[in-house]
Amino acid sequence: QVQLVESGGGLAQPGGSLRLSCAASGFSFSKYAMSWARQAPGKGLEWISEIYTSDTGTYYADSVKGRFTISRDNARNTLYLQMNSLEPDDTAVYYCKAFAWGREYWGQGTQVSVSS
After folding, report:
1. Could you give the dihedral angle defined by the CA atoms of residues 96, 112, 48 and 82, in that order, rounded to the nearest 10 degrees?
2. What would the pLDDT profile of 38-57 be if each residue is shown by its tens digit?
């Protein structure tokens, strides 16, 4: 059974940091590219970052570039998103996704709220 479980969300102050994790099971994690997306209240889904299988390629949306860092630990089957310099506009539900060979799997999401 494929599972992606996000954690690490919560409330942060502007300028603060959070680290999201996405624990994967039920598939060959190391063979899948991974990404993070988010959905803010009343808005559509926004892709924000992705990483390829051997950690050699990482990509970011302009809205998070320089503030967020994506990484993966294939030995632990876990994807991370380090979020620094958080802004109120980063408030959203954050989802991880695994994708390869036309397949994709999504997690259930974790809420991040940025407010003073």
Report:
1. -80
2. 999 999 999 999 999 876 78
